[in-house]
Specification:
The chain contains 8 helices and 7 strands. It has 264 residues and is an alpha+beta fold. The protein starts with a strand and ends in a 17-residue tail after the last helix.
Length: 264
Amino acid sequence: MKLTLKIWRQKNHDAKGELKTYPIDGIEGDMSFLEMLDVLNEGLINNGEEPVVFDHDCREGICGSCSLQINGEPHGPDRLITTCQLHMRSFKDGDTIVIEPFRANAFPVIKDLVVDRSAFDRIQQAGGYVSVNTSGNTVDANSIPVNKHDADESFNAATCIGCGACVAACKNASAMLFTSAKISQFALLPQGKIEATERALNMVKQMDEEGFGNCSNTGACEIECPKGITLVNIARMNREYVSASLEAPLSNAWSIDDESSLFD
């Protein structure tokens, strides 16, 4: 295939970026999208030009690093896959492909197609953990009965890889699907009950402080999520937040009337 690539190039966060055009030839349908970029970069290096910088790691749809906006869609035209799982047979000979980084104020561009998604790390650090008994009198986790439906739902939420597609798909750059998945995976299990109140309050507070927008209620996040995380998790997070607001000490809890993305 012969393709025309329009790729966002930006030296750093403070520099002004622009789309640059790169013709490319000899692309096979069985190549992954990242392999196609590897071919492009090999040619650029051979010509003495600076290669396009993009994130990647496992290339197996697990790490969430390969987050690219492809023709206006996070991870490209296919569903339930990451960019590294997208194959070039999804495109036609002669196509023009526009490749950009994920767009959100909370995801500042580092260089070219790489963005800083450490905001997600800080949200998880705010409450995405459970207490572990290390006293020497530990209890086998398998001895705690868990309803299978709850266990399955928790596992489904835990499949979130933190790629940021939900943020990129949302017109308000909301991180509610990501945050709700991280809350849900613990909210459904008995091990997660100890920090339940602090978790909901702290993670939602951190989400808002990072500058993510409010939920748009359009469902674009669910559609573009490569792991199929559903909007049910957002509803669960809302319940957890309201419950936590009522249970927490008044000195520590947010008022339900406070300005929060949950209720705007």
